[in-house]
Specification:
By secondary structure, this protein is of the alpha/beta class. The protein has 3 domains: 7-148 and 214-390, Alpha-Beta Barrel (TIM Barrel); 398-595, 3-Layer(aba) Sandwich (Rossmann fold), CATH 3.40.50.880; 603-676, Golgi alpha-mannosidase II (Immunoglobulin-like), CATH 2.60.40. 31% of the residues lie in helices and 24% in strands. It contains 17 helices and 31 strands. The strands form 5 sheets. Strands 13, 14, 15, 16, 17, 18, 19, 20, 21, 22 and 23 form an 11-stranded mixed sheet that branches. Helix 10 (281-294) links the parallel strand 7 and strand 8. The longest helix is centred in the first third of the chain and has 29 residues, at 209-237. It starts with 6 loop residues before the first strand and ends with a strand. Bound molecules: alpha-D-galactopyranose (GLA) and zinc ion. Residues 146-147, 246, 269, 304, 345, 355, 358 line the site of alpha-D-galactopyranose (GLA). Residues 146-147, 246, 269, 304, 345, 355, 358 line the site of alpha-D-galactopyranose.
């Protein structure tokens, strides 16, 4: 979807405002430079006011108004908000708790993705929508549903239970196979037939680990199938329209990597300052990198970008208001990580309903304000840089594995871990982010051969094929870096019985022979190449067979025992760090990789709170530089080669003989440098 260069837009709810307001809205939307608007994702009751009676007239009208200004539309399929008449007609569409209570239809997402009545109603409305707009060139595509599976609800209705049992039967074939896989002899759970199986209920840490993991897999697949139903309808009616859905970063409910295979491109909802006043921009960056890698061809959008204060948290009635410059900066951050489209949520703040304080660009009064002027300035800038930027791609030699299966396995465990799976992945990611090194955040099913370096923090659960592919990657010359608690579990969520890291002892040339959890109040370090490096969360004693010891523990009874090892395996190296990745460990790993010439950064930046990414074009590159602090900054960049450099936003230049570039950034400011050799 590159016809616009960069898609730049806003989520608009015409159904929330009188028609007399629409023209004025469209005028301001167009003057801000927006070229796309998302519409209708919660408008089922207007699209189908009663069973089978459709009314698209209002939607046609607003699409027409927008089209007059050259603005395209992306339409939401409205299935995240089933209308009251549907609940009345089929109360069984409401998800059911384990206690047998139906979820009250008081908010949204009150449906079971496996309910046949809901599937029929979904088919009907999606088909009608797709048919109605199949020849409408101003509708470029669809967002399926909205934030699928948001919330922790698990449905235990008769359909879900029945389908889960069938799912298990297809997977295991024979009930004895399932008994063996789960170890149901524990606490006398041996099943005689499939109907004896009941889905586990939260908290899952009291349940059989294998059953709990299969339930999470089944639930994820249920939503993917629900999406697939809608994708199938739209593709058969209008194959030329693009299909996406709005994800939520690395939210645990659905395996987003699997889901995204069905889409033309994924998109996500990005609210940096929701709940977190001092949010971590590296976390946001990592979610961009993950969403991009979920896409089949590495393209993605931000479907909702924070445009004002969000609603309340921890006793505060309203979230923190984005400071001047932040709205613009967040959009540049998305583009820096490869986004092809950025859409703000939402146009004007709602005066009624649930989200009265989840602010849009405009406040309740609809007047032009500071935030509007900021995005308008951004619109003007994007118009100037879009062609150069759209001609480039974010590329990386470093793949960081995010495994939903490993995540789910950790979520089922007692007390979780000192650091959560997400925290550990972030901690290692951040080492690279701080050095301005592009990283792909990939699924364990990705083709590893496209990377030089593979990072697998806390890869708690593996399966046979993953074990084989990791070995192949290293054997063929790759560098693999793993951290504590790697391959503890097999695909049935059982602990490996033949030593850790399960199935990978030959790859790492060592065995984990002892371990301890490290509570936050205890300090421990690793001594490595004359340096003291802080360890966190977990310590492992590694006993090498063929590996070399790179670092030893400096902690009570583990003092002097191997903590970090490297093993030559085929043409490559497998490194194992016997601790969770502290920021110190992450930083050290990156430094060693750079020192040994394994990663060769194009540019180095001096200063704190700066983010740097590179996008590559055919004969040029663009470097994005973002100031994540609310104060002015003088920045110095050091390039690996001499470039001719042009500042696309600020206009500075340098000539071909220089390796350095200096510039001034304002609070929350950004610059894009155009580089030619
Ligand atoms: C989400 C949803 C939107 C809206 C915003 C604010 O991301 O997709 O519909 O609810 O959050 O809450
Ligand atoms: Zn159900």
């Amino acid at each position: 979807m590159t016809e616009a260069g960069i898609w730049f837009g806003v989520d608009y709810y015409p159904e929330h405002w009188p028609k007399s307001q629409w023209k004025a809205d469209v005028k301001l939307i167009s003057e801000a430079g927006f070229n796309v608007v998302r519409l209708a994702e919660f408008a089922w009751c207007r699209i189908e006011p009663s069973p089978g009676r459709f009314d698209f007239s209002w939607l046609d009208e607003i699409i027409g108004e927008l089209a007059e200004k050259g603005i395209k539309a992306i339409l939401g399929t409205p299935t995240a908000a089933p209308p009251p008449w549907l609940v009345k007609l089929h109360p069984d569409i409401l998800p059911m708790s384990y206690q047998g209570h139906r979820m009250p239809p008081v908010a949204r997402r009150h449906y079971c993705p496996n309910n046949p009545n809901y599937l029929r109603a979904t088919e009907r409305v999606v088909k009608a929508l797709a048919e109605h707009y199949k020849d409408e060139p101003n509708v470029i595509g669809y967002q399926i549903d909205n934030e699928l599976s948001l919330g922790d609800e698990y449905c235990y209705c008769e359909h879900c239970v029945q389908l889960f049992r069938e799912w298990l039967e297809r997977k295991y074939g024979d009930i004895d196979e399932l008994n063996k896989a789960y170890g149901t002899i524990f606490w006398s759970h041996e099943y005689g037939d499939w109907t004896e199986i009941h889905p586990p209920t939260p908290p899952f840490d009291r349940c059989n680990r294998g059953l709990a993991l299969d339930w999470l897999r089944f639930r994820s697949e249920s939503f993917i199938k629900f999406l697939e139903l809608q994708v199938g309808i739209i593709r058969s009616v209008s194959p030329d329209k693009k299909i996406t859905t709005n994800l939520m970063g690395l939210f645990p409910g659905i395996d987003y990597y699997e889901l995204s295979r069905l889409l033309d491109f994924p998109s996500w909802d990005c609210y940096p300052k929701f709940r977190h006043v001092d949010y971590d921009p590296a976390w946001v960056a990592m979610l961009h990198d993950a969403t991009r890698c979920m896409g089949r061809d590495r393209s993605y959008w931000v479907m909702e970008l924070q445009a004002g204060p969000t609603d309340g948290y921890h006793g505060h009635p309203i979230g923190v208001t984005p400071e001047p410059g932040e709205l613009r900066k967040w959009a540049y951050q998305a583009i820096a990580h490869g986004a092809d489209g950025v859409i703000y949520f939402r146009w004007r703040t709602a005066c009624f309903g649930k989200e009265q304080y989840w602010h849009g660009i405009l406040n309740h009064d609809g007047e032009v304000n500071r935030r509007y002027l900021e995005v308008k300035r951004l619109g003007e800038e994007l118009e100037k840089v879009k062609d150069l930027v759209a001609g480039t791609k974010y590329r990386s030699n470093v793949g960081l594995v995010f495994s939903y299966e490993a995540l789910w396995s950790t979520l089922i465990e007692e007390g979780y871990y000192t650091m959560s799976y997400h925290d550990q992945v972030l901690s290692l990611y951040k080492g690279f982010w701080l050095h301005g090194i592009n990283v792909d955040v990939i699924s364990p099913n990705e083709d590893f051969m496209r990377y030089n370096v593979l990072l697998t923090p806390f890869l708690y659960l593996t399966n046979r094929s993953l074990i084989t592919r990791l070995k192949k990657f290293v054997y063929n010359g790759g560098i693999l870096i793993a951290t504590a608690r790697t391959s503890v579990k097999d695909e049935y969520n059982r602990v490996h019985s033949d030593g850790l890291p399960g199935g990978l002892m030959d790859l790492f040339g060592m065995k984990v022979t002892d371990y301890t959890c490290l509570p936050a109040e205890r300090r421990a370090s690793i001594l490595m190449e004359g340096r003291v490096i802080q360890a966190v969360g977990w310590l492992e004693e590694l006993t090498p067979s063929s590996a070399q010891v790179l670092g030893v523990h400096d902690y009570e009874w583990l003092k002097g025992r191997a903590a970090v090892t490297v093993n030559r395996y085929g043409e490559g190296y497998a490194v194992y760090v016997g601790s969770f990745p502290s920021s110190d460990i992450a930083n050290h790993i990156v430094k060693v990789l750079i020192k040994r010439g394994i990663i060769k950064p194009l540019v180095r930046v001096e200063g704190d709170h700066l983010e740097l990414t590179v996008r590559e074009g055919s004969h040029y590159r663009v470097v994005f530089l973002i100031n994540h602090e609310g104060r002015d900054k003088s920045v110095k960049l050091y390039f690996a080669k001499a470039f001719r450099i042009k500042g696309l936003l600020k206009g500075g230049t340098s000539h071909g003989d220089k390796h350095e570039y200096e510039l001034e950034l304002g609070p929350h400011d950004a610059e894009i440098l155009y580089l030619e050799e």
